[in-house]
Amino acid sequence: MPVLMTAHIPGGTKEMIEGMRPLLEPLRSAKGFVVHANGPAPGGWRVTEVWDSQADFEAWFEGNVKPAFPPGAPMPSITFDELNEVVTA
After folding, report:
1. Mean pLDDT of the chain
2. 75 backbone dihedrals φ, ψ, rounded to 5°
3. 24 — phi, psi (to 5°)?
4. Using one digit for the tens of pLDDT, what is the confidence trace for 43-74?
5. How far is CA 58 from CA 7, 15, 31, 48, 79, in A?
6. Residue 66 to residues 41, 60, 82, 87, 88: CA-CA distances in angstroms?
7. Counting Cβ atoms within 10 Å, is residue 60 exposed (0-12), middle (13-18) or buried (19+)?
8. Cβ contacts of residue 71 below 8 Å, gap of 6+?
9. Cα–Cα distance, 72 to 57 (Å, whole number)
10. pLDDT in the model for residue 63
11. Cα torsion for 80, 61, 21, 23, to the nearest 10°?
């Protein structure tokens, strides 16, 4: 079932996110990935993505994103919402 993943990175900044930009190209070919967006949020930075399943996201995050976080950086709080339908361009 498709999911909307929302991650809030406390204290996250545009510069921190831009430092992780090299992950965006391989993200496009990740199993189950649909779309990514990010921007400022109260107290930090928000990342939202749509994935074919929560398991697909978790495999990507554990293998690629988590190891790329700067040392000492706070890990995001992540929530998932099931989606009924995803329509793309």
Report:
1. 92
2. -80, 150
3. -65, -40
4. 999 999 999 999 999 999 999 988 887 788 77
5. 12, 24, 11, 14, 11
6. 20, 9, 23, 29, 28
7. buried
8. none
9. 23
10. 94
11. -130
Q: Which pair of structure tokens corresponds to residue 78?
A: 């992540």
Token pair in block for residue 1: 């079932």
Across-strand partners of 26?
A: none
Residue tagged 């929530």 (tokens)? 79
- How does DSSP assign 45-63, residue by residue? EEEEEEES-HHHHHHHIII
pTM: 0.89
Residue 25's H or E segment, with its range, is: helix 24-27
Per-residue confidence (pLDDT) for residue 20, from 0 to 100 = 83
> CA 49, CA 21: separation in Å to the nearest integer?
15
Exposure of 5 by Cβ count < 10 A (0-12 exposed, 13-18 middle, 19+ buried)? buried
